[in-house]
Amino acid sequence: MKEFSVKLQEHEPCTVEIPELKLKIVIEVIDAQIVEIGKGLNVLNTTLKVVHQIPDPSKVYNGVPMNQISEDKLDKVSKFKFDTPARSRFKAETGEIIDVYAEPLIVRYSEIYISALGIPHYNITTMSGAIFVSKD
Questions:
Q1: Could you tell me which of 81, 80, 106, 101 has the C-alpha nearest to residue 90?
Q2: CB under 8 Å to 7, separation ≥6 — which residues?
Q3: What is the pLDDT of residues 84-117, one digit of tens each?
Q4: How many CB atoms lie under 10 A from the CB of residue 78?
Q5: How far apart are CA 98 and CA 135, in angstroms?
Q6: How many CA atoms lie within 13 A of 87 on its CB side?
Q7: Which residues of 9-29 are buried (b: 16+ CB within 10 A; e: fewer)?
Q8: What's the average model confidence in pLDDT over 118-123?
Q9: Which of 53, 50, 71 is CA-nearest to residue 113?
Q10: Cβ-contact 115, 24 below 8 angstroms
Q11: Interatomic CA distance for residues 113 and 7, integer angstroms
Protein backbone atom coordinates (compact mmCIF):
# COMPACT_ATOMS: atom_id res chain seq x y z
CA MET A 1 0.00 0.00 0.00
CA LYS A 2 1.38 3.39 -1.05
CA GLU A 3 0.04 6.63 0.40
CA PHE A 4 0.27 9.76 -1.74
CA SER A 5 1.19 13.20 -0.46
CA VAL A 6 -0.92 15.43 -2.71
CA LYS A 7 -1.35 19.11 -3.55
CA LEU A 8 -4.57 20.58 -4.94
CA GLN A 9 -4.23 21.75 -8.57
CA GLU A 10 -7.81 22.58 -9.60
CA HIS A 11 -11.39 21.87 -8.61
CA GLU A 12 -14.93 21.82 -9.95
CA PRO A 13 -17.66 22.24 -7.33
CA CYS A 14 -20.93 20.36 -6.94
CA THR A 15 -24.25 22.14 -6.39
CA VAL A 16 -26.67 20.30 -4.11
CA GLU A 17 -30.27 21.49 -4.21
CA ILE A 18 -32.54 20.59 -1.31
CA PRO A 19 -36.05 21.62 -2.41
CA GLU A 20 -37.61 20.69 0.93
CA LEU A 21 -35.44 23.32 2.65
CA LYS A 22 -35.40 25.77 -0.28
CA LEU A 23 -31.60 25.57 -0.01
CA LYS A 24 -28.77 25.33 -2.55
CA ILE A 25 -25.30 24.38 -1.32
CA VAL A 26 -22.08 24.46 -3.34
CA ILE A 27 -19.37 22.07 -2.12
CA GLU A 28 -15.87 21.27 -3.34
CA VAL A 29 -13.12 18.77 -2.46
CA ILE A 30 -10.17 20.68 -0.99
CA ASP A 31 -8.06 17.80 0.34
CA ALA A 32 -7.89 14.03 0.14
CA GLN A 33 -6.02 11.13 1.68
CA ILE A 34 -5.35 8.70 -1.17
CA VAL A 35 -3.63 5.31 -1.21
CA GLU A 36 -2.72 2.94 -4.03
CA ILE A 37 -3.73 -0.65 -3.36
CA GLY A 38 -2.56 -3.05 -6.07
CA LYS A 39 -3.28 -1.21 -9.32
CA GLY A 40 -6.20 0.82 -7.99
CA LEU A 41 -6.78 3.82 -5.77
CA ASN A 42 -8.69 4.12 -2.53
CA VAL A 43 -9.81 7.40 -0.95
CA LEU A 44 -9.48 7.08 2.82
CA ASN A 45 -10.72 10.56 3.61
CA THR A 46 -11.80 13.72 1.79
CA THR A 47 -12.15 17.23 3.12
CA LEU A 48 -15.10 19.10 1.65
CA LYS A 49 -15.68 22.83 1.87
CA VAL A 50 -19.06 24.52 1.67
CA VAL A 51 -18.36 27.32 -0.78
CA HIS A 52 -21.75 28.96 -0.95
CA GLN A 53 -25.21 28.58 0.60
CA ILE A 54 -28.39 30.18 -0.71
CA PRO A 55 -30.97 30.00 2.13
CA ASP A 56 -34.68 30.61 2.32
CA PRO A 57 -34.94 34.18 3.68
CA SER A 58 -38.18 33.41 5.54
CA LYS A 59 -36.48 31.09 8.09
CA VAL A 60 -35.98 32.67 11.50
CA TYR A 61 -32.81 32.26 13.58
CA ASN A 62 -33.37 30.54 16.92
CA GLY A 63 -30.01 31.07 18.62
CA VAL A 64 -28.12 27.86 17.83
CA PRO A 65 -24.74 28.30 16.04
CA MET A 66 -23.90 25.92 13.17
CA ASN A 67 -22.13 22.68 14.16
CA GLN A 68 -23.20 23.09 17.78
CA ILE A 69 -25.82 20.33 17.89
CA SER A 70 -25.36 16.57 18.02
CA GLU A 71 -26.05 14.25 15.08
CA ASP A 72 -29.14 12.78 16.75
CA LYS A 73 -30.83 16.20 16.49
CA LEU A 74 -30.66 15.93 12.68
CA ASP A 75 -33.82 13.86 12.65
CA LYS A 76 -35.08 14.43 9.10
CA VAL A 77 -33.83 12.99 5.80
CA SER A 78 -34.37 15.05 2.67
CA LYS A 79 -34.58 14.35 -1.03
CA PHE A 80 -32.01 16.33 -3.01
CA LYS A 81 -30.63 16.88 -6.49
CA PHE A 82 -27.07 17.58 -7.54
CA ASP A 83 -25.66 18.67 -10.87
CA THR A 84 -22.41 16.70 -11.07
CA PRO A 85 -20.02 15.16 -8.55
CA ALA A 86 -17.46 17.56 -7.10
CA ARG A 87 -14.08 16.91 -8.76
CA SER A 88 -10.63 18.02 -7.73
CA ARG A 89 -7.32 17.33 -9.41
CA PHE A 90 -4.34 16.66 -7.19
CA LYS A 91 -0.66 16.25 -8.00
CA ALA A 92 1.32 13.79 -5.92
CA GLU A 93 4.85 14.68 -4.89
CA THR A 94 5.97 11.69 -6.99
CA GLY A 95 4.41 13.25 -10.13
CA GLU A 96 1.13 11.33 -10.49
CA ILE A 97 -1.99 13.33 -11.36
CA ILE A 98 -5.10 12.06 -9.54
CA ASP A 99 -8.73 13.13 -9.85
CA VAL A 100 -10.90 12.76 -6.74
CA TYR A 101 -14.68 12.77 -7.00
CA ALA A 102 -17.26 13.24 -4.23
CA GLU A 103 -21.02 12.98 -4.55
CA PRO A 104 -23.77 13.31 -1.96
CA LEU A 105 -25.54 10.20 -0.69
CA ILE A 106 -27.72 11.38 2.20
CA VAL A 107 -28.85 14.80 3.45
CA ARG A 108 -29.99 14.96 7.08
CA TYR A 109 -31.35 18.09 8.73
CA SER A 110 -33.30 19.55 11.61
CA GLU A 111 -36.45 21.64 11.30
CA ILE A 112 -36.01 22.92 14.85
CA TYR A 113 -32.46 24.32 14.77
CA ILE A 114 -31.97 27.28 12.42
CA SER A 115 -28.69 29.22 12.08
CA ALA A 116 -28.25 33.00 12.07
CA LEU A 117 -28.21 32.82 8.25
CA GLY A 118 -31.67 31.26 8.20
CA ILE A 119 -30.26 27.84 7.30
CA PRO A 120 -31.48 24.69 9.03
CA HIS A 121 -28.67 22.65 10.56
CA TYR A 122 -27.79 19.91 8.08
CA ASN A 123 -25.26 17.20 7.29
CA ILE A 124 -24.38 15.86 3.84
CA THR A 125 -22.87 12.37 3.73
CA THR A 126 -20.78 11.82 0.60
CA MET A 127 -19.08 8.99 -1.25
CA SER A 128 -15.65 9.51 -2.83
CA GLY A 129 -13.55 7.84 -5.49
CA ALA A 130 -10.28 8.49 -7.32
CA ILE A 131 -8.67 7.72 -10.67
CA PHE A 132 -5.20 8.22 -12.11
CA VAL A 133 -5.15 10.88 -14.84
CA SER A 134 -1.46 10.29 -15.47
CA LYS A 135 0.93 7.97 -13.75
CA ASP A 136 4.72 8.26 -13.67
A1: 101
A2: 90, 91, 93
A3: 999 999 999 989 999 999 999 999 988 888 777 7
A4: 16
A5: 8
A6: 12
A7: eebebbbbbbeebebebbbbb
A8: 82
A9: 71
A10: no
A11: 36
